[in-house]
Amino acid sequence: MVVREAGLMFRGFTLVKKTFHKTDKGKIDIDLRSGLLDAILSFAESAFMESSIEYFQGKKFTIVFTKDKIMSNDGFEPEVLTSYVILDRSKKIEKYIHKIVQPLLKHAIDEFSSLNMGKNLSEVSQFREFKTKLDEIYGNDSKTLDQKLKGVFS
Fold first, then answer.
1. What is the arrangement of strands in the sheet containing 79-88, beginning at the earlier edge strand?
2. pLDDT band with cut points at 50, 70 and 90 for residue 51
């Protein structure tokens, strides 16, 4: 299983994302996609009365989510911060999600929150350097089998 993309969303906008491998052929507006993902997630949670939807699976990809709260300097109370990854679809994904992906998502949220709690979260350009942290967090899981083998035999 390969992590294709990882990111963090707040108020329906992507704060930071790291693309490891392309998931589409065309150019997709990142804010439009983030808003749609946030709306679908909110709808699914309210429609199914679940406190947390863990993932959506399509024909080619699986999108895994986890949420936590973060305080923005323009808010009056903590708001939802969503961490997500886009993975290749797999048959036995449940075990992988719970043992590997969810802890990585939680780690990404914890790292981001520790660095940015109480900041102005609407100024997205300040989070560019966090892409390096996403690289560290998802490092090996973002490599294809060919890339892993190439690293072993180099």
1. 13-19, 3-10, 79-88, 61-70, 55-57
2. low
